């Protein structure tokens, strides 16, 4: 599925809440996935990145705050916020908007995992690493060379989620033997705060769709 921004947040919000409630009813622990507010505004423009789109940020942020509040009432602990635009060069107005938006959203309930995929963070690594969120997901499937820089910049008290290339026949088969050596520095630095997930499946979710898979599908690094 291509990553696109929905034009009607209210419709997708209700769908999200309904699916989370159904998952909770089945005894699952969902981690809902939402398109982040800045990527939503960027992608919703015919000429992506139009600075005029930022005028809508103050309207959109309270909507996200209300979504987080409703998810918390349903017993959700973590929410994944997809911001794929951080994988490309951004005008200064947009990087400043990221800081402003996430400093506001930090006061909303839920633990927040900021997810970036489709390429390396490059010049936006410092920005993403220090936004007031509880974790950062980065794409190693498409940009494996960024791991060293990510380990240098992301604080170890946060969750670091690494998107790995997984065999097409089983997106959740973790071939730890082939990646253990490369991931040893990450394991030493982050310990239990290190998550491994299938990057391709995360990217395919892009949009206001919930992750209804149980936590057991995440692949922890063993010692």
UniProtKB/TrEMBL annotation:
Pfam families in the cross-refs: Meth_synt_1 (PF08267)
Residues in Cobalamin-independent methionine synthase MetE N-terminal domain copies: 9-188
InterPro entries: Cbl-indep_Met_Synth_N (IPR013215), UROD/MetE-like_sf (IPR038071)
Gene Ontology terms describing biological process: amino acid biosynthetic process
Entry's Gene Ontology molecular function annotations: 5-methyltetrahydropteroyltriglutamate-homocysteine S-methyltransferase activity; zinc ion binding
PANTHER family, sorted: 5-METHYLTETRAHYDROPTEROYLTRIGLUTAMATE--HOMOCYSTEINE METHYLTRANSFERASE
Protein name: Cobalamin-independent methionine synthase MetE N-terminal domain-containing protein
Organism (species): Pseudomonas eucalypticola
Phylogenetic classification of the source organism: Bacteria, Pseudomonadati, Pseudomonadota, Gammaproteobacteria, Pseudomonadales
């Amino acid at each position: 599925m291509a990553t696109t921004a929905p034009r009607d947040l209210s419709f997708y919000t209700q769908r999200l809440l309904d699916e989370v409630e159904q998952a909770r009813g089945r005894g699952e622990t969902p981690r809902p996935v939402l398109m982040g507010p800045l990527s939503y505004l960027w992608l919703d423009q015919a000429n992506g990145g139009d600075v005029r789109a930022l005028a809508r940020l103050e309207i959109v942020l309270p909507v996200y705050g209300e979504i987080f509040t409703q998810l918390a009432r349903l017993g959700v602990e973590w929410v994944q916020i997809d911001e794929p635009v951080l994988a490309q060069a951004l005008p200064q107005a947009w990087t400043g908007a990221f800081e402003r938006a996430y400093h506001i959203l930090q006061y909303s309930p839920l633990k927040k995992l900021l997810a970036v995929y489709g390429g390396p963070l490059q010049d936006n690594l410092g920005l993403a690493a220090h936004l007031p969120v509880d974790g950062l997901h980065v794409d190693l499937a498409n940009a494996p060379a960024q791991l060293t820089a990510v380990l240098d910049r992301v604080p170890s008290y946060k969750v670091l989620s690494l998107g790995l290339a997984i065999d097409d026949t089983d997106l959740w088969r973790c071939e730890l033997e082939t990646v253990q050596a490369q991931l040893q520095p990450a394991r030493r630095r982050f310990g239990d705060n290190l998550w491994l997930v299938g990057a391709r499946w995360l990217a395919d979710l892009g949009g206001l769709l919930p992750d209804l898979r149980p936590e057991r599908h995440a692949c922890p690094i063993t010692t």
